[in-house]
Amino acid sequence: MAKFNRILLKLSGESLAGEQGFGIDTQRLNEYAQQIKEIHEMGVQIGIVIGGGNIFRGLQGAGKGFDRVKGDQMGMCATVINSLALSSALGAIGVKSRVLTAIRMEPIGDFYNKWKALRIMERNEIVIMGAGTGNPYFSTDTGSTLRGIEIEADVMLKGTRVDGVYTADPEKDPTATKFDDISYDEVLQRGLKVMDTTAIAMAKDNDLPIYVFNMDKVGNLKKVLEGENLGTFVHA
Ligand code: UDP
Q1: Beta-carbon neighbour count of residue 61 at 10 Å?
Q2: Range of the domain at 86
Q3: What does the pLDDT look like over 206-232, one tens digit per residue?
């Protein structure tokens, strides 16, 4: 029996770049697809939101002279590219998925609405929700929080390349220690970089628990669904 019935899985675009640091690393992509297949076989209903940082980020683009809104729109397009790549990788291993987008772009994906997403999951297919919230000045962390709340997910699983939430960035500070458990308020007060403030505040206001774990270690996603505590739980 899986720990959660319905999840919103947030995957980082940046992690998808793998060792090459840019674009889509096919090995990482296939590892993600394989891990998702494992939990799909456990009967979990799965909604996925994937970032676009491996291709473009509006804020970084603005620093280089891009118009912020156009840059964010480029970032949202990047999330659609990643969504299609993941859907394709899932299909290659026999897992059916559908891409819905927050910005109209049929036939690439149907235009998102909550009930379409629910119907897809009820058919035992995976729903991948691209283009973030459809609006500039938001992140895919906020997009995935929004979608997680909308599809009434039991939890948002935030797959990252670190093992959970630390007192400081463990990639920069070797003395940083990991929390097993932390409240939304403490994340905000300590200014921890779990997700941006908008996303944390939204999760808090709507009671969406978040579980942060290392998705880059193959097998971890299944362990989380089996109830192993290998990451950090963020909740009220
Ligand atoms: N983005 C946006 N609105 C949204 C979601 C994303 O404008 O609702 C843009 C934004 O420019 C962001 C980029 O898409 O930087 C890629 O998403 P993000 O940085 O969240 O990806 P990740 O860090 O997960 O790779």
Answers
A1: 17
A2: 6-235
A3: 999 999 999 999 999 999 999 999 999
**CATH code of 86's domain:** 3.40.1160.10
Q: In testing the pocket of ligand 1, which one of 10, 16, 32, 72 has its CB within 8 Å of the most ligand atoms? A: 72
Looking at the structure of the chain, the number of domains it has is 1
Residue 109 forms part of a structural domain: yes
More confident residue, 201 or 170: 201
Q: Is 59 annotated as a binding residue?
A: no
What is the value of ipTM here, to two decimals?
Answer: 0.97
